[in-house]
Specification:
Radius of gyration: 18 Å
Shape: globular
Distance between the termini: 32 Å
Structural class: mainly alpha
Largest sheet: none
Order of helices and strands: HHHHHHHHHH
Strand content: under 5%
Number of strands: 0
Length: 212
């Protein structure tokens, strides 16, 4: 594989990771509400989901998403349902009747539970997003050489993508953690939660209704 192909793939990975989307929003939300550890746990979950999709792509399994409309729709609807559920439950928890005056941070998940919740959320959200699979099945082969070395190079490209993930998101977590005091103010936090929930529901509805 040429150096230019490696550089091109790295740029593709950078643009894909740094472009704000559902992953960025989940990382910021968990960092603000439950601390840097929870934010980093979301990053680990996202990376684990990417690794599953990448492994399936190298094994040829995600070609099923391209070949089968039914398979694509099953994953798409499952992902949309999960995102809408996250949004609805977030709005429900933010309502005044579901909060108490003795709990100034009712949405703080705690250090341990927040980390576990963050990892699970990052992993499931990524795994139920068929576009991640389509990303790998459509782009990865274009950067692979032909021949027996293709699998090894594919693993190297996946490692680059995961490396970019672990380089960018922890930086984002660090910035959000420093601003956590401001963002945890009652009014700011509630608006952030509701904005996050609205985006989650919006993305879920779009994923459920948009054509392939």
């Amino acid at each position: 594989m040429s150096t230019s192909a490696l550089v091109a793939w790295t740029m593709v990975a950078l643009l894909g990771v740094m472009t704000p989307g559902i992953d960025t929003m989940l990382v910021l939300r968990h960092t603000v509400l439950a601390g840097g550890r929870a934010g980093l746990s979301v990053v680990v979950g996202i990376a684990a989901g990417c690794l599953v999709w990448a492994s399936a792509s190298l094994a040829g399994l995600t070609a099923l998403l391209t070949a089968s409309q039914l398979a694509y729709d099953i994953v798409r609807i499952a992902g949309a349902t999960y995102l809408i559920w996250l949004g609805v439950t977030t709005i429900w928890r933010s309502l005044p009747r579901n909060r108490t005056t003795n709990d100034p941070e009712p949405l703080d998940l705690g250090a341990i539970d927040g980390a576990r919740h963050g990892m699970r959320t990052g992993f499931v959200t990524n795994l139920l997003n068929p576009k991640v699979g389509v990303f790998y099945i459509s782009l990865l082969p274009q950067f692979l050489p032909t021949g027996p070395a293709a699998t090894a190079w594919g693993a190297a490209l996946v490692a680059i993508h995961l490396g970019v993930t672990f380089a960018w998101y922890p930086l984002l977590v660090a910035v959000a953690a420093r601003a956590r005091g401001l963002l945890l103010r009652e009014r700011v936090r509630l608006w952030m939660e509701r904005l996050t929930a609205t985006v989650l529901i919006g993305v879920g509805v779009r994923l459920a209704t948009e054509p392939r």
